[in-house]
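Aim 2 progress update. The chain analyzed this quarter is reproduced below.
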Amino acid sequence: MLARVWLFALVSVAAAAQVVVGVVADSSSGTPVLGATVSVQRPGGPVVGGAITDRSGGFSLRLTEGFYVLHVRSIGYDSLVRPLRVRASDTLRLGTLRLRPSSVQARDVIVEEAAPRIEVKGDTLEYNASQFKTERHADADKLVAKLPGVEIENGQVRAQGQTVQRVLVDGKPFFGQDPMATLRTIPAEIIERVQVFDQMSDQAQFTRFDDGQRIKTINLVTRPDRRNGQFGKLYAGYGENTRYTAGANVNYWGGDQRLSVMGMSNNINQQNFAIEDLLGMFGGGNPFMRMVGSAFRAMGQSMGRNRPGGDGPGFLSTFLVTPSDGITQSHAAALNYSNEFGSWLDLSGSYFLNTSTNNAEQSLDRLLFLGDSATQRNMQRSSAETRNLNHRLNLRADITLDSMNSLLLTPRFTWQSTDRSSTALTQTRAQNDALLNALSTQSKTTGSGFSTNSELLYRHRFPTDGRTLSARLQWNQQTNASDPSTSSLNAYYDGAPRFDTLTTTQPQDGTVRTLSANMLYTEPLAERQQLQLGYTITNTTSQLERSWTQPRNGQEFRADWHTSSSGLEHRPGIRYKLILGSPDTSAATQLMQGLMRSFAPRGMGRMMRQSDVGIWNIEFGTDLQLLNFAVDQSQSLASAAPTTFALTRQFRALLPTLSVTTRPAMTSFFRAWYSTRTNLPSPGQLQEALDNTNPLQLSIGNARLSQEYTHSVWLTYGTFDLSSASSLFVSLNANLTNSRIATATTIAARDTTIALDLANGTQNLILPAGTQLSRPTNLDGYWNATAFVLYSRPVTLFDAVKLNVSGTLALTYQRDPSLVNGQENIAHSTIVTPGLSITSNISENLDFTLSGRTAWNTVLNTIRSQLNQRFATHTILARGTYITSDSSAWLDGWVFSTEFNYVATVGLAEGYNVGVPLLNLAVGKRILDGRGEVRLSVFDVLNRNNSITRNVGSGYVEDVQTTVLRRYALLSVTYFLRAFRGS
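Predicted structure tokens:
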């Protein structure tokens, strides 16, 4: 709104002003300078007018009578500044203004005050890196963490309330889809711009029809004078308690050809990468259950880890984790390469290898609700060691066959092997504190996994603009094999004491494979109308082999289950695009477009020309889902004849979509998106095999599950005010799911026999007191909504202290139905999270950040009032670095760093409401003319580090405390490699 008022005032004044004309030319050759920025300001005041030179170097301004300062700027030239007096005459002719070619690097003629700190370009938020200063040798993650609306916590990057799944460098993949690996490899000093946007799929970018498959993406635009040379760092450190760290990352860049190598090893929980956890070993549980998300968890919130908003789609995002609890020793090596071979091949690829060993001890206090008043308490103490080996390979080859045809090949592969050993002591007590059972368990699991998400895209562009043909082949597969064994000593005290010793092995082997092919044809119907016709065929098959072996009375009892499913889907679709409205051709808007495009990096100008102010881009259409789904299951028990079961389903569904985008002003954008989708149950959810890995928490599948049907709505709006450099971003997301795969939980208050309605008949199951059984079921009525608001602006104090201030507000609501002991319970969950952040923008020698937020969590239940929860997490962060600057070599280059993170919680169980102050201190000395540094660091100076998590699930509330790394000191040496050509 402020921008509109400013522009309106500018145009109104210009209408009655005098005309000022001139020509900008090269002082050496005399040739006109195209695209030079001409701006005029009152002496000591704001900019009051401006223009962009045309092909002849000419420009024209309208100014009222008075004194001004004229600025002429163009990349590659020295800036020209001259006083200007406008008198009451018809036209003021300035003649030819000659610019001298710059004798210094391009970076030296950047006028930081002229470049906005945040710009809205289409649906992209673009940050000017020079307006967010960091210390000289900071990595990109330090820069990104200072951007309004972006946060980095526990190895996760979130922007505008959503998880960032991809970080590009100059528009190209870098280390695959691992954001932290990229952000901790690229130095902040080589970054010119940071762009945050929702990236469409490759096929949608080609057809220009939005398919809704967007993922939150950050693109790091590097400075042109930093794209040729070598950079990186080498470091090593050792400290008390045998803590150590060592590593290196070296980058060789030569224009389009870029090679990056990274290696690291440490035992201080530093992971500059994410682990692709195919087997679920870091989160526990059956990996096949994890494939459809949190089907067995109504709601989970971690203290100090507020995560508002929904995450975008993405195959690999399901498995990327960054375990932070416990103590981890990590070793990793990675290689990234990209190059352009002429005009026919754009190639990029990366390989990543890591191995880690994690040791964690955990205390769990769970309160189970049997009804409106009855409760049980479950307490567990456990320790585990997890060894993991992970390989990742990513490749992207964009092949141009000719001017009309191209191929895009994007294979991605992951291999994982894991070995996990654990011990646990568990007790369950009744409401009157009577002991119901006690278990001592030892378990060991070995596993291996493979996944791929590979795609081949063919693109053909016809001579007629808007007429295209594209075809895509896609192969997704996940294969897991594991061999868990459990030995437990069980004691039951409900009635006469009973003791039981069980040794169980439950090997399983499963594969989910999806092969898909589609073809899209787009046809222009008129100047502003376009049609897309598409057809997709998808074949999904899954197999899960599982056996269960247990010694009984000197004999081995064995059971085997085999579950397979297949789905063949035909999906014809139609989309229609309509462009309405007329572009804003006012003088003020044209001026703003010219000014903004003059600061646009490579590739952004084209996008901005396609996003005209006043234009409405409307797309709508529908797919028709025709799905045949079959499930086959067989069960073989040692004491009974094998049984088989087969079930065939047909699903028919319309899947409509609607997309609306517009730019109300040059400085704002609006986007609305509605879509529908379906989700099939996983093999683990379908297989009716009892999982008793944990004898107190049993689970079994449901072969009669139906697919989920979800409606989703996204609304986003962004704007910024050029005069105040303030920005506002608002987003709203809502999802409604019918036939949601929810959880039906049975909790035994006493020894109970229940009848399970299975596909092959009814089966009785004995549940000892304190035992619970979980089973997936379809329930209607699930929905959630998330709103996110960001406001940011720069503030200057005392004419010298420059700050960036941003405030955020996140609101999350969830309605989650579940069944507990046969009764439907609706959990209404609300999270309100306001936040405030203040970051410095003073100099490279002084860098600090102050931030705080509070997450108020409320869970209200319709029939289980004891499950109602109200708890809050308060987080305060203060981080600062000061580097001395002095003519004396001894006093110059001292580095003082501190970081204080305080997390306080209220509303948890007794003993868990604690405040955790984490203070880190470091002092260092720059050596070798600033290329090296010796540093002494102390982690957790107060020795108060802790990890507490609250989880709210179907019929229970639990608080979990896990061991973390405590105080240690480390002496380290770092060498910074910087060798840019021409610098």
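The first strand starts at residue 18 and ends at 26. Helices lie at 2-15, 140-145, 179-183, 202-207, 287-290, 587-598, 604-610, 683-686. These observations will guide the mutagenesis experiments scheduled for the next reporting period.
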